Amino acid sequence: MSKEIRLLEPKEVWNKFADLNAVPRPSKKEERVIAFMVNFGTSLGLETFTDAVGNVIIRKPASKGCEQQKMVTLQSHLDMVHQKNADTEFDFENQGIEMFIDGDWVRAQGTTLGADNGLGVATIMALLESSTITHPALEALFTIDEETGMTGAMGLEANVLQGEILLNLDTEEDDEIDIGCAGGIDVVATGIYTEVTVPAEVVAYSLSVKGLLGGHSGMDIHKGLGNANKIMNGLLIKGALQYALHVSSIDGGSLRNAIPRESIAEVVIPIAKRADFEQAFNEWIVQLKEEFKSTEPSLEIQISKVDIPDTVLPIAIQEKLLQCVHAIHNGVYAMSKSMEDLVETSNNLARVVVSQGKIHIGCLTRSSVNASKMQLANGIKSTFESAGYDVAFVGDYPGWNPNPDSAILNVLKEQYIKLFKENPRVVACHAGLECGILGQNYPNMDMISIGPTIEGAHSPDERASISSVQKYWQFVKEILKHIPLK
User: Fold this and answer.
1) Catalytic site residue from 79, 262, 434, 461
2) Cβ 362 vs Cβ 449: under 8 Å
3) How many CA atoms lie within 13 A of 130 on its CB side?
4) Catalytic residue (choose from 139, 145, 146, 462)
5) Helices (H) and strands (E) in the chain, counts
6) Rg (Cα) of the chain, in Å, rounded?
7) Shortest CA distance to 58 belongs to which of 164, 157, 159, 140?
8) Global pTM?
9) What SS3 class is residue 28?
């Protein structure tokens, strides 16, 4: 499949993307892709090194005649979100991504594509390798672990970078110029319980919620998409209240920054209530499909008999769990008061795991306003604590405050209008870009973010527009010709 991808224009970008996607690169396990990138830089004879946490930095001198322009730091992250469909067999730690062309789109076979942020990485690689593109001095910063904590950006020290302008290549609409982003914090609740023996005279079922679109928990949070954890919890509450349902286990969601697509629970029901429960459950399926028919057309909810498990949750623990998950806010919490149509604050109920005496519930709370972020996070914390859980705040990272007077913003707007005969959309996004973190140690660096059109990031539906990559590549090259003088 990569042969077809390599024939796409611009070949220099798609070939580097194919090279990159052949290298497994899960977050927190980036050893192979770090080695790949170091080898790439050294093979070009460029200054190449890694910092203390594993970020890769490569520097290239200015092309002839551009020596007096400011140095540009080009930045993208090496890791990718690993999501696959339930019926797809794939080993992300040992296999390269299997790509194919679908009209104007490049997609992957049942998995995430890695265009987030692999196309940004590939763009920088193409610029570093080129001998014909006009550019100022370039400094490539390839960060690690963006998707599961931004620890690469957090660990970058203040004296490493030399660039005066940072061009982040991690946004996903080719008509947007991003000048700000949300910060985030993980709210993680844990608890323990003593399992109890399954009651007598019961029948066991596996309940599953599948087929949801999922997507990026920042960029897609406003779309009203289904959250598998919330849908499953609603089913369990109805079953418990009306049919004496007992929960044995729950496994819902996967990654903190992906809207949950699937949830599976094992439960038991008194045999005497079996027929009524099955009838009611099928009615609930019809109701939920009607509720989500416009946003989740592929929603699947299934019930099947399974072997009776050995244990279930104590009723008191189960009641608190279901009430707590029901009470946790999921989705948009507040819209921005300063930028039209921008989500200010949101929460993603990302993970619910109940098994073998342990409970784990994970949320990712985002906001472009730190006070609002902490207000929502503290409210979620209080809800968890009222149910008796231990709660930790993990991975707090700052937002990136917009600067509408940015000098590099003026350059990008001018070149965009010149090339495409229309105004770009200057926006802030609800995703967590690394600019906010990098700006803490480099407060004087002028930052901007652009990227090609990518849809369905963080889900197996991820796809990258071929025509958009062509447009974006043209834009990047034109930007580098017009970088201000020192």
Assistant:
1) 79
2) no
3) 21
4) 146
5) 12, 23
6) 24
7) 140
8) 0.80
9) coil
Spell out the alpha helix ranges (H) of 366-434: 370-386, 407-420
- C-alpha torsion sign, points 192, 229, 314, 271: negative
User: In terms of Cα–Cα distance, which of 78, 56, 53 is closest to 155?
Assistant: 53
pLDDT band at 337 (very low <50, low <70, confident <90, very high): confident
| Beta strands per DSSP E along 27-96 | 47-50, 56-60, 72-77
| β-bridge partners, 138 | 60, 72
pLDDT tops 60 at residue 1: no
Q: How far apart are CA 432 and CA 149, in angstroms?
A: 10
Q: Residue 224's pLDDT is what?
A: 94
236 neighbors 244 (Cβ within 8 angstroms): no
Return the amino acid letter for 273.
K
Residue 179 φ then ψ, to 5°: -125, 10
Residue 479 φ/ψ, nearest 5 degrees: -60, -45
The question of whether 87 is a catalytic residue gets the answer no
When the pLDDT of each residue in the chain is averaged and rounded to a whole number, the result is: 96
| Dihedral angle computed from the Cα positions of residues 439, 442, 444 and 445, in that order, rounded to the nearest 10 degrees | -80
Give the separation between CA 238 and CA 245, rounded to whole angstroms: 9
146 is catalytic: yes
Tell which residue, 351, 129, 325, has the closest CA to residue 259: 351
Count Cβ atoms below 10 Å from residue 198 Cβ, excluding itself: 15
At 149, which amino acid appears?
G
**What is the distance between the alpha carbons of residues 281 and 266, in angstroms, rounded to a whole number?**
14
